Amino acid sequence: MAVNFKVIQRRNPRDLQAAPKSYGIAINNGTVDIDRLAELVGDGSTVRQNDIYAVIVGLVNVIQGELKEGRSVQLGKLGMFSISVSSDPSDTAEEVNATNIKSARIRYRPGKEMRNMLKTLSYSKVS
């Protein structure tokens, strides 16, 4: 199996007069939904698909709850989820409060095995 990629051209936003450069970008080969994941995991184990689905949904709910409490969630080989925020600046620390927070994001940091998987990928150029 290989990750397909295509070539696109992009201009340098800092130098619009410069000639565009060519870059390779990955092509998404479809999406796997939660039902398919439960089916695939179920095919490789003695646990039924419905039970796996229930565990995945339950896991998502628990992760959301832990993130809301301000905790990071470490899922071993899968990686870690945490909250990060962006805020508007203030002149002093005393002036900073919750109204300064303008957005929040869920940050995902892959585990070591997930990162190592990236090193083993092969690529195939498509036109």
TrEMBL record:
Gene3D superfamilies: IHF-like DNA-binding proteins
A Pfam family assignment: HU-HIG
Residues of the HU domain: 1-123
Molecular function (Gene Ontology), one example: DNA binding
Keywords: DNA-binding
Organism whose genome encodes this protein: Kordia periserrulae
Superkingdom per UniProt: Bacteria
InterPro entries xrefs: HU-HIG, HU_DNA-bd_put, IHF-like_DNA-bd_dom_sf
UniProt protein name: Putative histone-like DNA-binding protein
Protein transport keyword on record: no
